[in-house]
Design a protein that fits this description.
This protein has 17 helices and 29 strands. With 696 residues, the protein is α/β, with parallel strands linked by helices. Among the domains are: 55 residues, no CATH class; 233 residues, Rossmann fold (3-Layer(aba) Sandwich); 63 residues, Golgi alpha-mannosidase II (Immunoglobulin-like, Sandwich).
């Protein structure tokens, strides 16, 4: 059964509405409701006094209506009495400001008082509802770190010291790892160490990285604390909702802790890049679960309420984006929230039942999607539970994300923007894209890209080299392997050390990022693009973000800095001409290739413009023997992914698309070939030849 539903908050509504809710849920095809996410103050109105009568009634009513429950632990937003009794549980910012009640998530993740109070509530929930026939899934807390990802209070400081002592053992080892000989930062004992609060100038880089690691771990410890209580009294699966590419929390570390990966994602309808970015997020969620089906736990039926401009979704867009998630591995489509609130901070966030009621476009689309997903459920259809197979992957690394965006770096790099550029280029090959860790088993892939992985350990470098030397095609992007896990520089040419340098056949002598005058105080603009040339880039091109002086010792130079450079970083031709930054010789290597037997190791020393990067990726795929799937449609902007036994085809464009694919559309019952998909149109095609993979 493909899950369909959303967050249900009956405590916001009079009792007489609850029965209507169940009837409307049945009408919409809802089969899963997430309950009690923000109910702590209602469930425990005073310390140690619990009120479950209303929740009993809600769960019983949902069960009677045939609706299953994703039961939340309600710990995401402590009630005001906790802060009144224990003000030390409130979080503190790096500037020393203690945050107050009146919003949500107002707790210090390291607070033992918060954790113990949360465990008491969870124990009550488990004792009462573990055997309730409606409950299918436990939902722990909500969006960990969304508002308070790091706390700098004295409780957190003491927890940080303990974390450091467990990591390093001795203060001498900490001093070595942090390089505290610089700027007279040597510590004589762990008791002298503080969180990296606001400081006069640049803070210690490894201290910052360790605090990022610690903060992610402390949130995970909160999750584990609740999970321990649940597992002692229930064998139902457990999840907590991730938030796509969320920088503060290392989801690789978290993924192994959840039984089902779930995600909250809210693409902006006004942003033309939202559709490909959402595809990247879906691919990450599938990858975090090693390819297993996942849940889209939250999305909006239409507009949200927290952007400066809250655009509504176009007709059919909610449905199209929902099928995008299904195509990329989701076995559940849920929303925030069921009934649009009449009061509170999110009353203008759209709901499945909008303010306008059931005689609205949003409700009609909710009903349509629910009916369709019900028809697609079951093993006989070949969609639900199906896997997405792909020969290409991108390595993603939270340590590198944290480290490369610190101050005092060679240039400003948005790690996420670099990942997105490579994902879009790889998706253009027609395949979904997996995400992997650099030290993972890569044997199922033909091409693996390592973009801007600033932090590379010896083990990761060895794994990548072994895989490339064994026949894989490794593509390494700029600013990779500059430092190790302690942020100490890999001397002698960067790139994670000598082993990976040998595999690539190059070394990096110097960074020469494109830069204009540093006029930030008076509104200086973006740095100019860098000219590139090479057939593998489609001819003249440009690069942006970063550039390096590369020495090709044992590698072929397939594209160079310099040349005509008549395209800007976006592929346009109407901006100022590109120029080489000082220190970068004309003709210096920009893209290199070294054969590794049946494989190859490529290096890309800048971020080519969109057109050039697509050409480069296509050339690399051809070189690796990765075939591009045949197109499945003409016209429109088609995204098609094979999942299991079916191909999901979505037209995200503004023009019609005509399917060129044998099989039958499981939604309409019509033959697929010649089927016309209008804007935001969807077809789920079964009886497809196995040779058809995907196209975008």
């Amino acid at each position: 059964m493909i899950r369909y539903g959303g967050d249900y908050n009956p405590e916001q509504w009079p009792r007489e509405v609850w029965d209507d809710d169940v009837v409307l849920m049945q009408r919409a095809g809802v089969n899963l409701a997430t309950v009690a996410v923000f109910s702590w103050a209602r469930l425990e109105p005073r310390p140690g006094e619990y009120d479950f009568g209303w929740l009993d009634e809600v769960l019983d009513g949902l069960h009677a209506g045939g609706i299953r429950v994703d039961l939340a632990t309600a710990t995401a937003s402590p009630p005001p009495w906790l802060a009144k009794l224990h003000p030390e549980t409130l979080p503190v910012t790096e500037d020393g400001v203690r945050l107050a009640v009146g919003s949500r998530q107002q707790y210090c993740p390291s607070s033992p008082v918060y954790r113990e109070r949360a465990r008491r509530l969870v124990q009550q929930m488990v004792d009462r509802y573990a055997a309730h026939p409606a409950v299918d899934l436990w939902h722990v807390n909500n969006e960990y770190g969304c508002h308070v990802a790091r706390c700098y209070c004295e409780v957190s400081a003491e927890a940080f010291r303990g974390w450091l002592e467990r990591r390093y053992g001795t203060v001498d080892e900490l001093n070595r790892a942090w390089g505290t000989a610089f700027w007279s930062q040597r510590y004589d004992g762990f008791e002298e160490v503080e969180p990296p609060r606001a400081a006069p100038s640049f803070r210690n880089p490894t201290q910052l990285l360790d605090f990022d690691r610690f903060s992610s771990d402390e949130l995970l410890a909160c999750y584990r604390s609740e999970v321990e209580v649940i597992r002692a009294g229930s064998d139902l699966p457990i999840t907590t909702n991730f938030m796509g590419f969320f920088k503060p929390v290392d989801y690789w570390a978290w993924a192994a802790e959840v039984d089902i990966v779930s995600d909250d994602t809210y693409p902006d309808p006004a942003d033309p890049l939202s559709t490909p970015y959402a595809a990247m997020v879906r691919d990450l969620m599938r990858s975090l679960g090693a390819g297993a089906p996942w849940l889209l736990m939250e999305q909006s039926p239409s507009a949200v309420n927290w952007r400066a401009r809250n655009a509504a979704k176009a007709p059919g867009q909610m449905r199209a984006w929902s099928y995008q998630a299904v195509a990329r591995g989701a076995d559940g489509i849920l929303f925030f929230q069921w009934r649009q609130s009449a009061a509170g901070s999110e009353k203008f966030h759209s709901g499945m039942v909008p303010h306008g009621g059931t005689d609205t476009r949003v409700w009609r689309e909710i009903e349509q999607l629910g009916g369709e997903l019900a028809s697609l459920s079951g093993a006989s259809v070949g969609l639900e539970g199906g896997r997405v197979r792909t020969p290409v992957a991108i390595a993603v690394d939270w340590d590198s994300w944290w480290a490369i965006e610190q101050d005092a770096s060679p240039t400003t790099v948005s790690y996420l923007e670099v990942l997105f550029a490579w994902h879009r280029a790889l998706s253009a090959l027609g395949h979904a894209v997996d995400f992997v860790r650099a030290d993972a088993d890569l044997s199922s892939y033909r091409v693996v890209v390592l973009p801007a992985q600033f932090v590379v350990t010896e083990a990761q470098a060895a794994n990548l080299s072994d895989w490339a030397d064994g026949g894989g095609t490794l593509v390494v992007g700029f600013a990779t392997g500059v430092v190790d896990a302690e942020l100490r520089v890999h001397l002698g040419g960067y790139l994670g050390g000598a082993r990976l340098r040998r595999t690539l056949g190059i070394r990096v002598e110097e960074f020469t990022p494109p830069a204009g005058a540093d006029l930030r105080a008076v509104g200086g603009g973006e740095p100019p693009p860098v000219p590139l040339a090479g057939e593998v880039l489609g001819g003249a091109a440009t690069g942006s973000v970063w550039a390096e002086v590369v020495r090709a010792d044992d590698a072929e130079v397939v594209a160079a800095f310099g040349g005509a450079g008549d395209r800007t970083a976006g592929g346009a031709a109407d901006a100022a001409p590109a120029a080489l930054p000082p220190g970068l010789p004309d003709g210096a290597p920009a893209v290199t290739r070294r054969g590794t037997g049946s494989g190859a190791a490529w290096y890309v020393a800048t971020l080519p413009d969109e057109v050039a990067l697509r050409a480069l990726v296509a050339g690399i795929a051809d070189d690796a023997g990765v075939d591009r799937p045949a197109p499945v449609a003409t016209g429109g902007e088609v995204d098609a992914v094979r999942r299991g036994d079916v191909v999901v085809v979505i037209n995200h464009g503004s023009e019609e698309a005509v399917l060129d694919l044998d099989g039958r559309d499981l939604l309409s019952g019509d033959a697929a070939r010649g089927l016309v998909l209008g804007p935001q149109g969807v077809a789920v095609v079964g009886e497809v030849d196995e040779a058809v993979d995907a196209v975008e």
